[in-house]
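Why does residue order matter? Because the sequence determines the fold. Keep that principle in mind as you read this record.
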Amino acid sequence: MEQLPNFVMNHWVLVGALVVLSGLLINNLVGGRLGGVADVDTQEAIRLINHQNAMVLDVRTPDEYKQGHILRALNIPLGLMDARITEISKYKETPVVINCRSGQRSARACSMLKKHGFTQVHNLAGGILAWEKANLPLTTK
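Structure:
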């Protein structure tokens, strides 16, 4: 145990890298759940939609939405979220699955909804790309 301080001082770059990598690993393991926002895969999203009557919120642009979206998804582009939050305020206590193209915009939308008091916010990991990769249906209606 006496050699630990000497090792740390002599190999501070390695120890620093270990600390940084450990932090990143921990963040990756719990990152989807911080602040009450959970990343969900397509199967969990389907379970939430079918068994918990989750509302699906698509935060892509109207043009992206028209090209194909999850059945009964409501389209509110990320840039209009604050202005249109009252449209979905009745869903504050119910599960909300948010999607975009890849999962980045929807992650930001999840944070916004949490700040507005939504309690069950779920980010579709991988977005519509993951949905399509799982061969799940999209509609253009």
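Residues 12-30 form the longest helix (19 residues).
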